[in-house]
Design a protein that fits this description.
The protein is α+β, with helices and mostly antiparallel strands. The protein has three domains: 154 residues, Porin chaperone SurA, peptide-binding domain (Triger factor/SurA peptide-binding fold, Orthogonal Bundle); 104 residues, Chitinase A, domain 3, CATH 3.10.50; 98 residues, Chitinase A, domain 3 (Roll), CATH 3.10.50.40. It has 14 helices and eleven strands. It has a four-stranded antiparallel beta sheet with strand order 4-3-6-5, sandwiched between helices. A hairpin with a 2-residue loop joins strand 1 and strand 2. The chain is globular.
Length: 433
């Protein structure tokens, strides 16, 4: 069923007014859960409501995670985009329900922990952050549940796209080998789709705001995870080494004028806007070059800092971290620290690909011998120590083939997902109030 003319008119008015209404009411975003039922409905998706509380709570979370300033200008720019996100999440939820897909609480908790680990956050830090903002944990769980169920829905709907033959991998490897000696770039991306023509200026404004915050020091990884609608959002926007010749002409021209470390201006493609971060350049070494992504097993210890004001005792935690570093002779020593040292320490053993580590952690262990503690690393609210327990030796050819397979599947599913979401939106009854 398509929206009626009245519904379309309401949608247009909603887009123009919703940010202004919120900005006028935006004394503070965080609202106690108990007051949620007292707030109005701002949109319906096939009669399922999205409340003003849903919007304001998600805005609070987005601003906290991205570091964007909490002011009216931010709200006016982000509100329409966040409403679109909430609408798409409701469509994802309804599609998963149609397919009988359920996401377990264990899956949600595992996703939260992965989110924390890739951002060097102590275990439980995300839920603590929500508490300090007076937000329900469901604000975060709703987003995770939609993403996980959508992933499963796509794999069911487009199962054939996830079947990559050895011949297809061989063809891609041959193409990579043909690129040997040609320029390649180490890129990260933030992709913002433009699903409807009348949204172009709105999306461009969000892209420009993201670039402004990046230039002011906002971490690219966090901004990508918060805003990007590409599969690479799960790894902070990391595209890896990309052949410049395979990029769209407009992206290639933009990169040619950039220096290492630069952020691109918003680049318009057929499907939306992309923002690139040029992390490095080199010439391609072909399919057999150093593109492997080995696994490492890390022991992590987190020393929480409850108060980091200049007059606090944060120096005590730093001294403790330095003492613990001297005591750590192996991974088991570090794993035992929470049981032998007071102060609320936590210890986690991680087994991750190098590409999944944050740049800060990756740099700290790059030349670190196994069984040697890293230097003390400062992250928001904590000090951290890392130790490489094992670097998992793998056949480099198998690693490269696995990477190619994953990249081909992601590209296919990404294209299918965008078209499928456009179809869901077109066939849904969506009303903005």
């Amino acid at each position: 069923m398509r929206p009626t003319s009245l519904a379309k008119a309401v949608t247009v008015v909603g887009r123009m007014t919703i940010a202004l209404i919120l900005a006028a009411a935006f004394v503070r975003v965080a609202i106690p859960s108990a007051s949620a039922q007292q707030m109005g409905i701002i949109a319906t998706v096939n009669s399922a409501p999205i409340s003003e509380y849903d919007l304001r709570a998600r805005l609070e979370l987005v601003m906290a995670m991205s570091g964007l300033p909490r002011n009216r200008q931010t709200v006016q720019q982000l509100a329409p985009k966040v409403v679109d996100t909430l609408i798409e999440e409701e469509l994802k939820r309804q599609e998963a329900e149609t397919l009988g897909i359920e996401v377990s609480q264990d899956d949600i908790q595992a996703a939260v922990r992965r989110f924390e680990q890739t951002r060097n956050m102590p275990a439980g830090a995300m839920l603590e952050m929500l508490k300090t903002m007076n937000l329900s944990e469901e604000v975060l769980y709703q987003q995770i549940r939609a993403d996980l169920s959508w992933r499963d829905a796509l794999r069911r709907r487009f199962r054939a796209l996830t079947q990559v033959s050895d011949e297809e991998i061989d063809e891609e490897l041959a193409r990579m080998e043909a690129e040997k000696g040609k320029p390649v770039a180490l890129l990260s991306e933030i992709f913002l789709p433009v699903d409807q023509p009348d949204k172009e200026q709105e999306v461009r404004a969000v892209a420009n705001r993201i670039i402004s915050e990046l230039k002011n020091g906002a971490p690219f990884q966090t901004m990508a995870t918060t805003f990007s609608q590409s599969p690479t959002a799960a790894v902070g926007g990391d595209l890896g080494w990309v052949s410049v010749g395979t990029l769209a002409p407009e992206a290639g021209r933009a990169l040619a004028a950039m220096k290492t470390g630069d952020y691109s201006e918003p680049i318009r493609s057929r499907d939306g806007f992309s923002v690139y971060w040029l992390r490095d350049r080199r010439v391609s070494q072909g399919a057999t070059g150093p593109s492997a992504d080995p696994q490492v097993e890390l022991q992590q210890v987190t020393i929480p800092v409850k108060d980091v004001s200049p007059t606090s005792g944060a120096g005590n935690e730093l001294d403790l971290a330095k003492r613990l570093r001297l005591r750590a002779n192996n991974c088991q020593d570090m794993a035992d620290m929470p049981r032998t040292v007071a102060g609320g320490l936590t210890a986690d053993k991680l087994k991750l690909r190098l590409s999944q580590l944050s740049p800060l952690v990756k740099e700290s262990i790059k030349d670190l011998p196994d069984g040697t503690p890293s230097e003390v690393i400062k992250v928001p609210g904590a000090y951290m120590l890392f130790m490489v327990c094992e670097r998992v030796a793998e056949n480099s050819e198998e690693i490269v083939r696995a990477q190619v397979r994953r990249r081909l599947i992601d590209a296919r599913l990404d294209l299918a997902a965008r078209q499928f979401m456009r179809d869901l939106r077109r066939n849904a009854f969506i009303e903005r109030r």
